[in-house]
Amino acid sequence: MTLKAIIHDAEEGGFWAEVPALPGCVTQAETKEELEVNLHEAIEGWFKQAKLNLRTILRKFLSLPYESCFREEIG
Hints:
The protein is an alpha+beta fold. It has helices at about 30-65, 65-70; strands at about 5-10, 15-20, 25-30.
């Protein structure tokens, strides 16, 4: 998978980066080399958290009675 990261110059020096495809996935560093390492860690952390969130959602969904999961709203 290829993800696009946008690198910005930080006002106080150094750099910060964001990954537009992953909301909230941002990081910063003093050098571009450090930023690359931090980006990999931020992306990995983003996916780990997304996996935990999905598990939580599925547990809640699967604990509901079948009828309440699939009933149609009328009205």
